[in-house]
Amino acid sequence: MCSLIKAIHLSLAISFVISIFLSNTVHGLEAKTVINSPLLTKKIGTNRTIKVDINGNGEFKSIQAAIDSVPEGNSQWIIIHVRKGVYREKVHIPENKPYIFLRGNGKGRTYIVWSQSSSDNVESATFKVESPNFIAFGVSFKNEAPTGVAYTSQNQSVAAFVAADKAAFYHCAFYSTHNTLFDYKGRHYYDNCYIQGSVDFIFGRARSVFHSCEIFVISDKRLSISGSITAHNRKNAADESGLVFIRGKVYGTDDVYLGRAKGPYSRTVFAKTYLSRTIVPLGWTNWSYEGSTENLFQAEYETHGPGSSPDKRAPWSTQLTDEEAAPFLSIDFIDGKEWLPVWIEVDS
């Protein structure tokens, strides 16, 4: 009997420790954990689902029609489940329709595709989200407009325009030849996403973390200069925005800079990221920016691979110390603990 009681006490103690561990890691997951659709669905705690099926086996055949059916001022999470297929439509989630979870069947199975170039980045966008509290999982966003003529109205071809605060994309993909992801404003999280482009293809003034993302550089032979992955636009030192890339990889078919300045306080960080030879040795550029480089924050931390050349980088760029990098490696950079359903712990 004594042995049985001890065993029960031991079991209860183990259960208590496990419960404490789970309560402390319920949102911030270890790096080896895969964030999938069931986990996200569980974390947002809803069973309200609208099914979209291009073949007619759902409530709607169009994604936009499903979004239009969501009531204005929606205050509880609602899932729009988009089954596999290529949905050829422009999709817009307006600012008065928050708490939408756009759940696809995988970035290789669910596509939102349009083809449009414009002198206006926003007008060209295949997908636009302006409502706060938005999640997407397993969706590919593509602008398949042919590469236009540089510096003309046929130049902008945005795949996604993200102007929402508290927006998260998990296992999504973004395709275009130019200006692919307009990361306009707000706090954003991208986990295990694929982003493809050639010139300024991640740009805007958002405060965003890109965790374990693949960045693929395609060739743009219209230009005599190398393209750039990022073009962050930060106007002053009080602005908290910045683009932070952690534990991803950069590769491709053409030479490219990690980023260029789009504003006097442009802030971009690549940390613990694999860089292939597609990154030119100078790393960073102030091309077309006529202001001082004194306040630019174009930085790296423990990048590696053949494209990592700290001794050849632009003189105004920075190789961060552990202490300097710490604020950018924390999910607190985007206040993620306050609004993300799940995230991956950077240091695990």
Can you offer a commentary on this structure?
14% of the residues lie in helices and 32% in strands. It is globular and about 55 Å long. An eleven-stranded parallel beta sheet has the order 2-3-6-9-12-15-18-21-24-27-28. It has 348 residues and is of the alpha/beta class. It has two domains: 38-184, Pectate Lyase C-like, CATH 2.160.20; 197-340, 3 Solenoid (Pectate Lyase C-like), CATH 2.160.20.10. It has helices at residues 2-25, 37-44, 63-68, 121-124, 322-329; strands spanning 28-29, 49-52, 78-82, 85-88, 91-93, 100-104, 110-114, 127-129, 134-137, 140-143, 160-162, 167-170, 173-175, 181-183, 187-191, 194-197, 202-204, 207-211, 214-217, 227-232, 242-246, 249-252, 256-261, 267-271, 274-275, 284-285, 297-301, 318-319, 343-344. It contains five helices and 29 strands. The two termini are 42 Å apart. Acts in the modification of cell walls via demethylesterification of cell wall pectin. It comes from Ficus carica (Common fig).
Outline of this structure?
The protein has 348 residues and is an alpha/beta fold. It contains five helices and 29 strands. It is found in: Secreted, Cell wall.
List keywords for this structure.
348 residues; alpha/beta; Pectate Lyase C-like; eleven-stranded parallel beta sheet; 5 helices
Label the CATH architecture of the largest domain.
3 Solenoid
> Which range best describes the helical content: under 10%, 10-25%, 25-40%, 40-55%, 55-70% or over 70%?
10-25%
Low-confidence stretches: 1-26
Category by helix and strand content: alpha/beta
Q: What's the N-to-C terminus distance?
A: 42 Å
Structural domain tally: 2
CATH homologous superfamily label of the largest domain: Single-stranded right-handed beta-helix, Pectin lyase-like
Q: Given this structure, which CATH class of the largest domain is correct?
A: Mainly Beta
